[in-house]
Design goal:
205 residues, mainly beta, Porin, disordered N terminus
Length: 205
């Protein structure tokens, strides 16, 4: 059910932004972005015993930043690095804390119909997900780093020529990462997630 909600939310966000006209031209401009928000992770699995147990995950905070470069008036390249952590539980009992550092490389399509101050966009790209898990007793497990993809939709609102407020909805799809403790596999971590973030962009030129 959580996966279905994530996919529906992402499609809706992209559809809403695609139908809106935009304003500012960032061709040739370099900017920095800072963002913070919330992330809804997929559930994971504990395979250390039989039967396998579902590991429920809490919604967590996500934050980070990166760079954006306007290739032309419609296309922009973006690098973002974000961090999130969230709790996992089995049957209501907390078992530990997951964390993910997401190195995200993407391309935006920025809509160019003139509307004052407002620039909606849709984007997609590649994600390198560096994952970790710490049990409640403080023992750290080994998690694989995995590569995934993302789709995003958002809007920039320019309060002045060099400064924009930004909001974005993003979904990340990636294969499961093995959770290992002492060399033995004890579970599967599902890095798929949906996030909603808000922040600001500052353009240097």
């Amino acid at each position: 059910m959580k996966r279905l909600c994530v996919m529906i939310s992402c499609v809706a966000a992209v559809a809403l932004t695609a139908g809106t006209a935009c304003a500012e031209n960032i061709a040739g401009k370099v900017g920095v972005t800072g963002r913070i928000g919330f992330l809804v992770p997929a559930d994971s699995e504990d395979t250390s015993a039989s039967p396998t147990f579902n590991v429920d995950t809490d919604t967590g905070f996500v934050g980070g930043g990166g760079f954006i470069y306007g290739i032309n008036k419609n296309i922009a390249a973006e690098l973002d690095i974000t961090h999130t952590d969230f709790n996992g539980s089995i049957g209501g009992d907390r078992v530990g804390n997951f964390e993910t550092n997401n190195i995200s490389l993407g391309v935006q399509y920025r809509f160019n119909e003139p509307t004052a101050h407002l620039t909606p966009y849709a984007g997609a790209g590649l994600d390198i997900l560096v994952n970790g898990f710490t049990r409640d007793d403080g023992v750290k497990a080994d998690l694989d780093t995995v590569v995934g993809v993302h789709a995003a939709g958002g809007v920039d609102y320019f309060v002045m020529k060099q400064l924009a407020l930004t909001g974005q909805a993003k979904v990340v799809l990636a294969p499961d990462a093995d959770i290992r403790l002492g060399g033995d596999k004890i579970g599967n971590f599902d890095p798929m997630n949906f996030s909603m973030t808000f922040g600001a962009r500052y353009f240097f030129n």
